[in-house]
Amino acid sequence: MGRYILRRLGFYLIAAWASLTLNFVIPRLAPGDPAAAMFARFEGKVAPEAMGALRAAFGFTDAPLHAQYFTYLKHLVQGDLGMSYAYFPARVSEVIGTGLMWTVGLAGVAVIISFVVGSFLGVLAAWNRGGWLDSGLAPALAFLGAFPYFWLAMLALYLFGFVLGWFPLRHAYGHDMEPGLSFAFAADVARHAVLPASSIVVATLGGWMLGMRNTMVATLGTDSIRLAHARGLPPRQVMLRYAARNALLPNVTSFGMAVGFVLSGSLLTEIVFSYPGTGYLLILAVRNQDYPLMQGLFLVITLAVLAANFAVDLLCLWLDPRTRAHA
């Protein structure tokens, strides 16, 4: 098993190195550089003599390419992702850190809730085939999941925010609130998160439920489950410990990929609600041609997906003894 873990870790480290290298090479293949774009944007406000300093600040120097590459890696090890010129003079790491906090709090919690509730409903639907969960709720959630999640977000915003006025229309907290560790601020943040989080949960719940339900049905027909019934084990133990644990593996694997959905910030949902997460930051970075911020977001999302998939591999080793036997 140790050799298997080391092999998988080596694979993810190579993938991470490839991502870092692409993150360095691609901007240098594009015409121009961030300093030139910033100079054009602030024409008349930035002296031409400052171009050299700006290019050095953004990592574009006249040094050989391999020297620039090692300097780039050194800065990454120190946690320096460069300087954002849309938020100049803020560092990219500071800008991403702020957006990441809101995205993990919103989309991260929403996806976890959707995964846990959807998987559990799928187990119950498969165990009680033909019941109202299987014949009524599953098709209804699949129907809702067929709609684009940004459309559900706009519908929720119009109905519950604009028409009924139950929830705020935009942002992560009210403009009259002072951010801090207080119950009033936390309650206001939770109230602002209800509509965007609910739209994500409703849009993804059916997929988790149907995936778990179909895998669970196949698992219930295996010899191991028949043997568990023949031994007289309690039905709840058979359902959860034997059937659900084996059927959960495909959903766990998909959950690792869903992290990309989380850290890309549920892009359109954040735009609909003007939520200040990483998805909203990405749109602003593209609109302002902020290459360092785009690079930083790409890198953070890629590394997070790789880390999540490595964690899923370890979780599958723990959940499935057969995986440990062949590792």
Write the layout of secondary structure elements.
Layout: H1 2-29, H2 34-41, H3 51-57, H4 65-77, H5 92-127, H6 132-145, H7 149-163, H8 183-220, H9 223-230, H10 235-263, H11 267-272, H12 278-287, H13 291-319, H14 321-326
Question: Tags for this entry?
Answer:
single chain; 327 residues; mainly alpha; MetI-like fold; 2 domains; 14 helices; flat
CATH architecture descriptor of the largest domain: Orthogonal Bundle
As a percent range, the share of strand residues is under 5%
Order of helices and strands: HHHHHHHHHHHHHH
Secondary structure: helix percent: over 70%
CATH class label of the largest domain: Mainly Alpha
Largest sheet: none
Q: What is the 3D form? A: flat
Structural class, by secondary structure, is mainly alpha
Q: Whole-number radius of gyration? A: 24 Å
Number of domains: 2
What separation lies between the terminal Cα atoms?
5 Å
> What is the H level of CATH, i.e. the homologous superfamily of the largest domain?
MetI-like
Oligomer: single chain
Number of strands: 0
Overall residue-averaged pLDDT value: 77
Q: Can you count the helices?
A: 14
Low-confidence stretches: none
Under CATH, the topology of the largest domain is which?
Answer: MetI-like fold
